[in-house]
Amino acid sequence: MNAILQPDLLSSTSLSTGAPAGQWRVAEVEALYELPLMDLIYRAQQVHRAHFNANEIQRSTLISVKTGGCSEDCGYCSQSARNKTELEREKLMPVADVVAAAQAAKDKGASRFCMGAAWRGPKDKDLEPVLEMIREVKALGLQTCVTLGMLKDGQAEKLADAGLDYYNHNLDTAAEFYPKVISTHTQQDRFDTIGEVRKAGMKVCSGGIIGMGESRRNRAALIVQLANMTPAPESVPINNLVAIPGTPMATSGGVDNFEFVRTIAAARITMPTSFVRLSAGRDAMSDEMQTLCFLAGANSMFYGDRLLTTGNPDVDRDEALFAKLGLRPI
């Protein structure tokens, strides 16, 4: 299990290279946010180029294999049964349909296929068809990722045995802000599931959502919690809140574009070897905004015209942007 690390327990860090000398402190990440933007992006680029090819982007496709009806009360989510959205509850997709979607994603250039199910956590009977999906998608030569909620004893091992590469379980926000977003479970519950994933030998995909009314200190604290995991998540999705009518976060207001870019840069500097992913909210970003995010160290993105329940830029738009910037897929 990964314990939540409080700021006063963290030791010093080298800000010049992004390589942790010990553990990050919240004050240190706040100091990154406060740098002049050009200095911050330059520092993030230095860290990025030390660990990755700066002109390569990893592309993942995400689909919802079971939509709506979740019992949790996440304030941002259209799939919560407690939120008054227009989303209709759907049954688990047939395995053959999921495999067809995975093949289409691969044909369009995705290297990872991510499958999400709106559950608090899977029942054992629900897990069996998901295991088959993983095996079939893996056989196509794609990396696999699922997000199924909180896992019970033994379920992570079953997923690993099926060949799962990544398990997604976002921290969402800083520990001190978490109760304002979700009340039906604690953030420690999420750390517990991440611990089970690690014990089973799988890679972790974990990030957060920006623009839910949190403060800059909350954003810095979230980055600290992610960076101080041992090891840090291999994949770090940074979501820009999509304010969905009918959810408690519908009027949260979001964040300034430059603040979002600063968050990307802070994630890159504090997690030098992780893939930092542009996730939800990219549909509303201009090409110039996305380019700033790439300059700040983002090197992964969700690819395809839809995420779980929200829109995403279509493939043609992305391909045109890649061509303008000289970016190549990983």
Care to give the gist of this entry?
The chain is built from ten helices and ten strands.
Helices, strands, pairings?
Blueprint: H1 26-33, H2 37-51, E1 56-66, H3 95-107, E2 112-117, H4 124-139, E3 143-147, H5 155-161, E4 166-168, H6 187-199, E5 203-205, E6 208-210, H7 216-227, E7 235-240, H8 257-270, E8 275-278, H9 287-295, E9 300-302, H10 315-325, E10 328-329
Parallel strand pairs: 1-2, 1-9, 1-10, 2-3, 3-4, 4-5, 6-7, 7-8, 8-9
Helix pairs in contact: 1-7, 2-8, 3-4, 7-8, 8-9
List SSEs in N-to-C order: HHEHEHEHEHEEHEHEHEHE
Distance between the termini: 32 Å
The description of the largest β-sheet is: 10 strands, parallel
CATH superfamily: Aldolase class I
* CATH fold-level label: TIM Barrel
Structure description:
The protein is 36% helix and 14% strand. By secondary structure, the protein is α/β, with parallel strands linked by helices. α3 runs parallel beside α4 (124-139) and α8 (257-270) packs parallel to α9. The protein is globular.
Structure keywords:
globular, disordered N terminus, alpha/beta, single chain, 330 residues, 14% strand, 10-stranded parallel beta sheet, TIM Barrel
